[in-house]
């Protein structure tokens, strides 16, 4: 493990370096905030040990803040002089692992170092495990800009609480990623995380999915079934696209959130539940309330804490790091470790507005890596729209259109619509919600059009 020691006294740096090196650690020393910041920026540090007082004008708090601002911050132990407990408590509030007073016992400090490094190793292991089990979880650590740092800080503050959180952002900004982070950074992490897309389920089925049903309550209800809110136990239920819930279901959901009890479909008995509720929407619920499509009381019940996800076009500084992150995933998936972006390709990505946000960027990188002949992804590897080229058109403005005998505009448009539906499904890998987004349709509209053209399957009909 790599430890950074920061102290303005040469003798103290020497003592700590010898003691920690003998314990098997790699040690770097700095005499002040500037050199400590340089060390933190140039190499990965697992633990910082800093004196609180660094000369007449510098403070260990500045070192602590520089460490905490890193994408993967190290643990920090603060050394304080006798009688500075207030400063120590301030350091703990700012994110320090612990503090130790001067003069300290060497064995006590080594034990504190061991515990801090164990916490660091466990956190890295958990992050690695989540990234393996939950694709996209690592995106939280990628954003370098101020807006995503603010989102990360808010997630860290809110995750341990029981508060209901409403996540707002355009499609593709990573709302479910945030919901998963809130769950896995909470005391509920060992319990289930159960998501449901409210826009993808019709009204009757949505109530059964959320609240459960009893045997015989409707055709096909052959046995009692607990809903997600009960089934989650003390875990988390994520209500994605909450803005698409019908008004009649909104009334029932409001009562459930107030009473913390559900009434299964077909039952008169109420069942308590313990799950935490997280919700997300791409809609402006303020506007939906004013339009009469969303209940104001439910909005205030859900909107205890709002996390606003900015669109990718408003955080250009994150595009290149995100693209590199997605390319690293493709290197593993395609077993092509040499894949890399040319500077021109990264510049072109950074100048694009990405109406589909992070999800669109991920798809573009996957396409470029899959189709690339060589290891270097150049502007030619990117879609024509990023290069400022429009798709070829079969007709130009003012050109004549041949209308032969028996021509039917309705049939012609139906055929074109069917081709686009099939193409969107193919591009989305059969994922209907993503295909609907590619076509700019709501899921309900997309599902209706699939059925109209005989493209729906039994699951859609159910």
Can you give me a brief rundown of this structure?
The longest helix is centred in the first third of the chain and has 28 residues, at 106-133. The chain has helices spanning 10-22, 33-42, 60-68, 85-93, 106-133, 146-158, 175-184, 203-211, 228-231, 247-259, 285-290, 296-302, 319-334, 343-350, 357-371, 409-427, 432-438, 443-452, 458-461; strands at residues 2-6, 26-30, 47-51, 53-54, 58-59, 75-80, 98-101, 165-168, 193-197, 212-213, 225-226, 236-240, 261-262, 271-272, 276-281, 305-308, 340-341, 376-377.
Largest β-sheet summary: 5 strands, parallel
CATH architecture of the largest domain, by name, is 3-Layer(aba) Sandwich
> What's the N-to-C terminus distance?
55 Å
**Helical percent range?**
40-55%
- Which CATH class of the largest domain is shown? Alpha Beta
Low-confidence stretches: 133-137, 391-399, 458-462
Indicate how many domains the architecture comprises. 4
Oligomer: single chain
Walk me through this protein's architecture.
With 462 residues, this protein is an alpha/beta fold. It has 4 domains: 2-129, Response regulator (Rossmann fold, 3-Layer(aba) Sandwich); 145-310, P-loop containing nucleotide triphosphate hydrolases (Rossmann fold, 3-Layer(aba) Sandwich); 313-387, Orthogonal Bundle (Helicase, Ruva Protein, domain 3); 416-461, Arc Repressor Mutant, subunit A (Orthogonal Bundle). The protein is 45% helix and 14% strand. Strand 13 (261-262) and strand 14 form a beta hairpin. The longest helix has 28 residues, at 106-133. The radius of gyration is 27 Å and the shape is globular. Residues 133-137, 391-399 and 458-462 have low confidence and may be disordered.
